[in-house]
Write a structure and sequence with these properties.
alpha/beta, Rossmann fold, 8-stranded mixed beta sheet, two-stranded antiparallel sheet
Length: 211
């Protein structure tokens, strides 16, 4: 599959590196072509030969699937470069770093409204780039979307993750809020991982089950 990244930062490089290793063709796109070239070189040096660099426009045109990995405040504008019929993976989190709340809720939904015909899928927003550089086997990756969810689920599996169906795009705001909550707790010194030790047991009493 041909994948373009809109952005040449840490998240784009981490995920693109894994997809190249899985056999996909990737173009790293950025406003600064030199930075995109450097990111592509690092991916190639790490064992990924099927990677090249270009502008944001070139990467948007290149990818059947496009990873949107730019600051959230420009996400809607940059997503407008993607043609109808293609799939955009939104991994952004619009955080207000003063109190770790959402600065602009529902970025994924805003993209879908602003760019008609593009399949927007929310995924990969709950972990930092360091996780995606060396993802643990079996890591659950929630996905929200109305179209092309199966395509993104395949890309999750390609990096050793487990796709978790999290509902339609209308639920993407919940993924974004979950990221804000978790990051705020982590910055405050809390143990986010310890919050969900056995969700099956926790919800078993309130969810309908077999009698």
């Amino acid at each position: 599959m041909r994948i373009g990244t809109l952005g040449n930062g840490l998240m784009a490089e981490a995920l693109a590196g894994q997809w190249v290793k899985a056999g996909h063709e990737v173009m790293i796109g950025g406003r600064d072509r030199d930075r995109a070239v450097e990111a592509a070189k690092r991916i190639a040096a790490a064992g990924g030969s099927r990677v090249e660099a270009g502008s944001l426009v070139e990467a948007a045109e290149y990818g059947e699937v496009v990873l949107l990995a730019v600051p959230a405040e420009v996400a809607v504008e940059v997503a407008g470069l993607v043609a109808a019929g293609r799939t955009v993976i939104d991994c952004t989190n619009a955080l207000d770093h003063r109190d770790f709340t959402l600065a602009q809720p529902a970025t994924a939904e805003a993209i879908a409204r602003a760019v008609p015909g593009v399949n927007v899928v929310k995924a990969f927003n709950l972990a930092a780039d360091a996780v995606w550089r060396n993802p643990p086997s079996g890591l659950g990756v929630p996905i929200c979307g109305d179209e092309a969810v199966d395509v993104v689920a395949g890309l999750v599996r390609d990096i050793g993750g487990v796709p978790v169906a999290a509902g339609g795009l209308v639920r993407a705001k919940l993924l974004e809020a979950t990221a804000a909550l978790a990051i705020g707790i982590w910055v405050g010194g809390g143990d986010v991982r310890g919050m969900f030790p056995s969700l099956g047991d926790a919800f078993g009493a309130v969810l309908p089950g077999e009698s």
